[in-house]
TrEMBL record:
CDD domains given in the database record: Ras_like_GTPase
Signal peptide: none
SUPFAM superfamilies: P-loop containing nucleoside triphosphate hydrolases
Gene3D superfamilies listed in its UniProt record: P-loop containing nucleotide triphosphate hydrolases
Pfam family, one: DUF3482
Protein name: Putative integral membrane protein
Domain G span(s) in chain numbering: 7-91
Domain of life, per lineage: Bacteria
InterPro entries: DUF3482 (IPR021871), GTP-bd (IPR006073), P-loop_NTPase (IPR027417)
GO MF terms, alphabetically ordered: GTP binding
Amino acid sequence: MAAVAHFCVVGHPNKGKSSIVSTLTENDTVQVGAVSGTTRQADSFSFSADQQLLLTLTDTPGFQRARQVLAWLQAEAVAPHQRADRVRAFLATAEHRQRFPDEVELLTPVMQGAGIIYVTDAAGPVSASDLAEMEILRWTGQPRMAVINPMAGTAHQQEWRQTLNQYFQWVRVFDPMNAQLDSRLQLLRAMNELAEPAQQAAIERLITHLQRREPDRMKHDAQQLAAYWCEQMTRTLDEQARMLGESPEAALHRQLNQAEQTQFQLWLKQSGYQRLALETQPDWVKDFNQLMNTEHWSFWGLTSKELLIVSGAAGAAAGSLLDLGTGGASLLLGAVTGGLVGTAGGWLVSKQKPGSRLALPGVKTKRLIGPVRHPNFPFVVMARGLSFLQQLKSRTHARRDALELQVNASTWSQAEQVRLLGWARQLQSNKWNVKSQQALEAWILSQSYPDERI
Ligand SMILES: Nc1nc2c(ncn2[C@@H]2O[C@H](COP(=O)(O)OP(=O)(O)OP(=O)(O)O)[C@@H](O)[C@H]2O)c(=O)[nH]1
Ligand SMILES: [Mg+2]
């Protein structure tokens, strides 16, 4: 079995070391923080594919007293081939644990054989302590690469590049907050070149895994979103799950909200997020986890005016696409201008009756609750789902800010809006078929990642 590749991420405090570990291992539990000195101890994180451990990255505290450590190393004259032993002697000196806890912590895994990824933000001129850090790393004799994390401008980047080139075999810019697949692969290829031959097979496997996973995941996500959307379009009240004292409308609202939550949670889990929980994100867009808060529907779906236009177009294109019970423009106008939206879920109530059996004298006619036939519903459900997926796809695990849903159905062309309404109508009138499902999935795929060709 191939050896696991092992690299240590080191550098000055607060330069994004932990963020890089978080992004590359797709682990959002790595401690990242604005306060300098967030990482106090070396901590290892791994990336596995198909149950095989491929890469371990060790996150370390930043250098605190690099110049003093270098002075200690240089206090005795040693030949270049003895420098690594001199670093080992530094680590073996008991009092250094107290005097230089951060340097001991960060150099220990390096001297155990890890490659080095040195991180800088290249924000200011190269200082004496920066040079001391690089010199110490050179003394370790371990394979070394440098990463410029562009978190603070590029004014000094040239100076930094030229300096880093003196100490490191490979120097590149890498932005852990926004790194997409290409730049991650570039970094991994560099690691592959630097790694011990025994570790190279693991990195190669990792590269292949990431390349294959991307299109597979996109397709899978599109299928899941299509299935989820179809379920929401046809969801009727689950009486069994109705809580005591809850009205049927409220129960259906809750069930629709819950279905969205469940879907979002599943996507988070599939992307390896452990911390990004919806209910613990106070800054999330208002009512983010409340699909059925109809007051905010125009934010995700269409405005009343847009709805009227597209509904009109849909009607012209395919006859009476919108069956709102009695049909006709006046009802539609009522529905979209709030008449039905505002009432206590009036538009939720299907006109269908469950059978004359229930209309016996003295027995109240049982209403069927759902599916939701409001014309904005297909847009709102789709826009929120797509937006969620797009955000997940474009962010990295290093980010600790809130997800923001940005997609709005009004950005879709009118032809697309009409298609979506048509699909909803097909579903709600039991005319759904395999071809519709495929068309819906293909459309979602084309919408999900508009910047990419699959
Ligand atoms: N805007 C921006 N912020 C970044 C970037 N990289 C890191 N940060 C932020 O900078 C701060 C420090 O990031 P960390 O990854 O914790 O840095 P560190 O080098 O591990 O810090 P210590 O553990 O304290 O040495 C965090 O608030 C990050 O969110 C970046 O590329 N852009
Ligand atoms: Mg850190």
